[in-house]
Design goal:
By secondary structure, the protein is of the alpha/beta class. The chain has a four-stranded mixed β-sheet with strand order 1-2-4-3, with helices on both faces. It has one domain: Collagenase (Catalytic Domain), CATH 3.40.390. The chain is globular, with a radius of gyration of 18 Å. α2 crosses α6.
């Protein structure tokens, strides 16, 4: 963690108990480490910071997605940045952590993605925690340039945690993409 960051308060809220059974570790202990790695790699705030992680289910994420984004569907991760949206103009309270915001993650969607992509649930969860935290720090993927930069940043942060690049194309898939089409396929 950057020396300028004196403290990081991470409130892990396990709203769906399936997270505890599915990921064989104490999430309240391990996820703050993932958040610290994301903050160190993504441009830490100038002082103490705080954020919350909500581990919920698809129904909760669908509700949040509908209320705040107008999309009536679950999604894997939502980020609600507070520090970047200081609309009251008061700024941080001296001596108190900067409230970065909240990250919410949906159980069923993340389990399905991990299975489909051949990843462990733990690694995929960590990736989404990094992704959501980077959004709280102001990183985004609105255009191709931002997407490429954010993906590189995520891959680098995950590497510090011993997790493979989630965007890497498996060798067998890459070889299939480069193989010439057979006459029957054209």
């Amino acid at each position: 963690m950057n020396a300028a960051m004196h403290r990081l308060d991470v409130d892990v809220i396990v709203d769906d108990p399936r997270w505890v059974d599915a990921v064989d570790e104490t999430l309240e202990d391990t996820l703050p480490t993932v958040v610290m790695a994301a903050i160190a790699g993504g441009g830490p705030p100038a002082g103490p910071a705080a954020l919350s992680l909500l581990l919920a289910d698809d129904a909760r994420l669908q509700d949040l997605n509908g209320r705040y984004r107008g999309k009536d569907a679950p999604t894997n991760v939502l980020s609600f940045a507070l520090a970047a949206d200081d609309t009251d103009g008061l700024g941080p309270v001296p001596g108190e952590p900067i409230a970065l915001g909240d990250v919410a993650i949906a159980y069923e969607t993340v389990v399905g993605e991990a299975r489909t992509e051949g990843k462990s649930l733990r690694d995929h969860l960590y990736h989404l925690v990094v992704h959501g935290t980077l959004h709280l720090l102001g990183h985004d993927h609105i255009d191709d340039t931002g997407t490429a930069a954010m993906e590189r940043l995520e891959a680098g942060i995950l590497a510090t945690l011993g997790i493979a690049d989630p965007y890497a194309v498996p060798a067998d898939t890459a070889a299939d993409r480069l193989a010439p089409l057979s006459p029957e396929a054209s």
